[in-house]
Amino acid sequence: MSNDAATATSVTAVDGIQPERRSETPAHGLGASLPPADARAKTEGTFPYAADLWAEGLLWAAVLRSPHAHARIVSIDTTAASEMPGVRAVVTHQDLPGDPAHGRSVADRPVFASDLVRHHGEAIAAVAADHPDTARLAAAAIAVEYEVLEPVTDPEQAFAAEPLHPDGNLIRHIPLSFGDPEAVGEVIVEGLYRIGRQDPAPIGAEAGLAVPRPDGGVEIYTASTDPHTDRDRAAACFGLEQERVKVVVTGVPGATGDREDGSFQIPLGLLALRTGCPVKLAATREESFLGHAHRHPTLLRYRHHADAEGRLVKVEAQILLDAGAYADASSESLAAAVSFACGPYVVPHAFIEGWAVRTNNPPSGHVRGEGALQVCAAYEGQMDKLAAKLGLDPAELRLRNVLATGDLLPTGQTVTCPAPVAELLSAVRDFPFPALPKDTPQDDWLLPGGPEGAGEPSAVRRGVGYAVGMVHMLGAEGADEVSTATVKVHDGVATVICAAVETGQGFSTLARQIVQEILGIEEVHVASVDTDQPPAGAATHGRHTWVSGGAVERAAKMVRTQLLQPLAHKFGMSTELLQIADGKITSYDGVLSTTVTEAMDGKELWATAQCRPHPTEPLDDTGQGDAFVGLAFCAIRAIVDVDIELGSVRVVEMAVAQDVGRILNPAQLATRIEAGVTQGVGAALTENLRTPRGLVRHPDLTHYALPTSLDTPDIRIVKLVEERDVVAPFGAKAVSAVPVVTSPAAIASAVRAATGRPVNRLPIRPQAAVAAPSA
Q: How confident is the model at residue 182 (pLDDT cuts 50, 70, 90)?
């Protein structure tokens, strides 16, 4: 879009969400649009990216990766590589002193392949040399003899195929059963849906620096999003106590999934231990595509039953997740997919069967909205089919079925959090439509396909589509979600120490706002993160806003009590009668008025606190259980223009309504929603990592098409519902994942409306957007 259009979108998003508050917005604290804590460092070029790190005596690492998707390793000869001038170490599976494998939930992924290669790009060996080119040449000189095997790339074939792993091909099976299996609706629609492989496409280079320690341990500097888990995995593979391995988090360029994969970190640390020198690795974009996990490609079969009025009676579904070669986060992703397979709709009877299986495709894992995005595209496709069969408006059909607080999920869990789904859907439905394009637009790029691919304006059809989506917050199925934070105050400056990694979700800014709100101190610093601090968990599912933010809040309140108790005792009143605002402490009656600095009197105050939400439980053998701490919902109306002759699609506008619990930072919240919608546009139209016969085709950003500013539609945040979740700190909900989940389904719905085609595959291919003969 043009600069003017981009500005207009930004203004609409930020100002439009709460126009009545603009004059009341505080300068700092909760509710303020405080700028990101790292904004200045990033704009000035001083942000500490891992790729920029340096150390005295630095060596460079390179990893040899398999060119095959499935092969037996006959032999590995490192002689030529070891004898090259400048090479300091070559390591394979034989050089691992500890566990040979690692993994998120199951340690099933070898650090280096030993007998079998299970996916294209699997690590075989690693080299350390005094120059990066030498390291790459040495890695290429390692002679590996392969016996190439037939890859299993179709997840449906994995059930009958020979085991690809000692643990077998089936990672998890969930047969959810809810209600009466004999229930039948008056109207039945069926559908088969396929979701492609989306790459998280981390913005900056995946890189790291490992430095050996005098005690025989190692420090790893990398953009980890879960440093304590990464430390524990690495220590197990190194055969070291956890205390002798330290992970220091460098600046994270941004993350929408796992940031730095173990296939980078562990070889790096092993080389540093072997050579006794600092070792650095900066992965190429190709290595990133081959090494890290992607969104699960998914096959979904659905049958919806409804009565003559369009009310859902029963949903039957089969969901098959392609986990790739290793388990990673597939079990958790499957649980989300099965639990949310009916969407935010009331369904009296549901029978969902889900599987996650191993194949010889690249590994799948955590990418924002995992599991929920795939099923949202399918169940919303089913709702469009029902609306068409019943002759109902698609939005009206959805409104007749939406979930509300107090309703049951198909897992048997009661929705206790705010669930204003009807309010959200009504808001986007009633939002004014944008103007229709002219017959001959002045700007060719406004046509689907842009100036080089534009067809005739007369072939352009406009479509309107709807979708509602849901995600869970925090970990699920009994995950112990706990975070620890320390708040220190000295000389009028506060410091927050918490191992919650800032990945772009805004935690560092939020931590500053919390302390400003509670202690009235404007200057707040957030310490850098390493594993010497108590763990805070992974930066996923909005957990740092909830759990780590809650820990910071509790610690700050404890410091507040320490600060106010002497004053309260001196004046014979309770601390509840004192308030802190704008750096001043005042009593309810005006008798006491002093500054925070004066009250501190040179002392240093500090407190450490934990936050742990209420426990959850695993799904049982029938898919029943209270598996989730909280839920977030979103409704989106998509408007698209489709060239029905060429199949080109342009997303014109996305109207978004979302329940956010409480707005903590208006500008940051709007940015997160816009970013989520944009990522969803990529999943809907352009992003699909192609892997014929298990081989990653074109692993680069030239052929893997991320949406650019010209692909980004006008994003109108038409309503944010601030109904606080009473069990969440501040009452706030996660905001990033649910627009990612919902927007691809809304775009597919709009393309269906424009073309009359079923659109049952994401991303949408041009042939699927060519109008049906009757359209």
A: very high
